[in-house]
Amino acid sequence: MIRTILAGAAFAAALLAAGGAARAQGAADQCTHRGALDDAYCDEDRDLVADPPRDPARLRDPSTLVFAYTPVEDPALYANQWRPFTEFLSQCTGRRVVYFQVTSNSAQVEAMRSGRLHIAGFSTGPTAFAVNLAGAVPFAVKGNPEGYESYRVAVLVRADSPFRTLADLKGRRVAHTSATSNSGNLAPRAFFPQQGLVPDQDYRVIYSGGHDRSVMGVNAGDYDAAPVASDVFNRMVQRGQVQRGNFRVIWESAPFPTSSFALAHDLRPELAQRIRQCFFDFRFPPQMARDLGGNDRFWPATYLKDWEPVRQVADAVNAPYTRANFDAEARREEEAAARRAQQRRQQQQQQQQQ
């Protein structure tokens, strides 16, 4: 599966190389402002996201809509959880809806950029890469009747550990999730020094590859601590993957928005508006609401307003959402995936020898 997803990301990059230059040149000829967006996109209205193409011939009206949610260790888990929504979206739009399983943030972003992904739920940090590099237009977040969901950066340690403050983690094994993650890397780099702990100076950063992997690693004793998104941790507790009593939270941040739901910028406006309305009309069935932290609906959101705290964190640690930083993260994800595959092979060999 990992090799398949990585191959998909490579295929997307090849598509970009073949057709991206011409598309970017066409946008450059007509665009007077694009801000932080890639050359393939334009932002004339200065709302920080890509405008729809001016040329009607470049607007897409696909008969099959492809939807993906944020990558996790077991992609099939989210495919099952989101089935009630994808079935509703199919009925609501009158089109076939396919769930696309992804195991890396880079593969998800590249899939939207290449045109193979139309609707996606991006994690908080990768949302900005998707906006700048893939033409994603965030429009919604999960929530409940009171408002949309937020999360905090929560630093987890084992409950039986001696660690009580961030300063206690100097010289310890601290897992960050991935370089592009807001809660799992960028926010800790921005906030920890104020608490007496400097990543890469007071401890060597270990990238786990995901929030769920960080949580499981702390639980197993592989890591002494890990900053993770509190909503992911809470869902893992609710699903019975870990027990809350096995952990202690030694620090939390102020709230951030959770994963965004975004459309490709070049969908036909009537279709884009229909999809938005379908999102807002949908109510999560009881099991889906339980699986997704008690959320039961989508709330409107914009990248300009609701992702401002995330952009501020990136600015504070000098980690702009550029193609160069994205490519570096993609390489790290590939290397991490290769290491996990090697570990699985070694475990299988050991089991066969027993």
UniProtKB/TrEMBL annotation:
Residues 344-354 have a biased composition (Low complexity). GO terms for cellular component: ATP-binding cassette (ABC) transporter complex. The keyword Signal applies. Residues 325-354 are annotated as: Disordered. GO terms for biological process: transmembrane transport. Residues 326-338 have a biased composition (Basic and acidic residues). Residues 1-24 form the signal peptide. Keywords: Signal. Belongs to the phosphate/phosphite/phosphonate binding protein family. This is Phosphonate ABC transporter substrate-binding protein. It comes from Caldovatus sediminis. The lineage of its organism: Bacteria, Pseudomonadati, Pseudomonadota, Alphaproteobacteria, Acetobacterales.
